[in-house]
Amino acid sequence: MFWGFCEALNFIQQYQKKLSADESLPESLNILLFGSGDPRHILATASQLFLHPGLKVNVYLAEGCIELLARHMVLLAVAFEDPELLSLKGKTHLFMDLFGNNLIRPFSSAYLSSKAKELTDIITDAEYAQRQAPMFNYETLRYKERDQLENVFRFWTNAPEHVFNIARYWEDRLRVQLGERYDHRNGAFDWDLQMRLRENGAKQVCPQEYKHWRETGIAFTFPEYEQSDPNKTFAVGLVRNGKGFLHRGSVGDNMTGPYIAFGHKCAEERLSRSKHGVNDFRSTDVTERNVLQIVYEIQNRKPYCFDPKDIHQYGAHQLDAGKNLNKHEARTESADAIHYNKPLLRCENLTIHFLSVEDVLRMHEMERFAGKFDVVFVASNYLGLVKDGFNRTWKENCLVCFETRQLTVFSKEEIKEHTDKIKAFAQKESLAAATNFSINKNHSILLYKRADNK
């Protein structure tokens, strides 16, 4: 729910691959992210936009939960934050903290609280939004949904009434999920990792980081940091209750983890080296490298040159993560807290359109989406929401991308069943495969092209 199960894709690059030698990129690309869960594809695409100054990219975000739209906003804000407020390394670790950790650093909590106030002003004042974050377009959101977003941002601010004891919710859910196996959970975690996740292809994930995440919900750890505050971006189903809020506790994935999006592959093969099954680098370290590249290229508008000194190397180390100082009382801010209210970095040729939650179910019948999209991405858990007539939203020559369940803890039978559903849908719609199925390889994403005469 809060992250995807395929690698971050640069959709400009993917679209170019399907063009013939005599074809060139159009003046604009309209990209639909149907339930992507996180902004990984937006960031991977945005980081390379400096290579295409004449190309206009419109990304349309369709999510079935208003809290996910809010989470998209704050994660994108981190990546596009003014460099006077955050260094590249600061952005990288802040992003990883909010993206994948149940408990976050006090600094991350203070940032989230401050940014929530800024995002409230952005969502409630169109003129202010145009000055501060012109890439955000929320015109299609209903007023009720804007009020809901405002409530989400209010809950993110640090106040005594805004309690979210994610550590307790996580443990309670784990006890129910494992039942009698809870007392032997370390062995259950190891089986899920070795016999499912790594067997399915996610070999970069290391035992120590995966088991720590399954136990605590903290995926990304570094020895210099200590996580103590609840990550309120994981709260969904928020409803006002006096001065406080009701919510659904801990939901979303608690078996695969947030490692695939940025921590599965990278350009340097040496980061994937292992000896006797022990990796030189954790998935956390690879995530650090890939997120650092993204924020560097967004900020500097030039290619990133990898330096091993930029990242950690803890693949073979069992880090002493220490006790997680989960605070049962909400943090309150001091009067001299930093305010993160500078305008976000400009990206003139990128606009992110936040679609109404209701559009997820009605998109196929809405006239304003007819023949709209050059690229469509469908998340694995949204395949069942694809209705007859969904192809009306595609342009001719549309690139259609389906996320599989390959890099998850699903069984091989479940993965194959889901992949077969994708292939059956593609056959029904007369889509031509852009993925090379003849290669003996498991795919986390399947790419198809719409035929010219369709």
TrEMBL record:
Quote the subcellular location field of this record: Dynein axonemal particle
One of the protein's GO biological processes: axonemal dynein complex assembly
One GO cellular component term? dynein axonemal particle
Instruction: Give start and end of each Dynein assembly factor 3 C-terminal domain.
Output: 136-433
Annotated DUF4470 domain ranges read 2-104
rRNA processing keyword on record: no
Keywords assigned by UniProt, alphabetized = Cilium biogenesis/degradation, Cytoplasm
Query: PANTHER family of this UniProt entry?
Result: DYNEIN ASSEMBLY FACTOR 3, AXONEMAL, DYNEIN AXONEMAL ASSEMBLY FACTOR 3
The family classification in the record reads:
Belongs to the DNAAF3 family.
Query: Which protein are we looking at?
Result: Dynein assembly factor 3, axonemal homolog
Source organism per entry reads Anopheles melas
Lineage, broadest ranks:
Eukaryota, Metazoa, Ecdysozoa, Arthropoda, Hexapoda
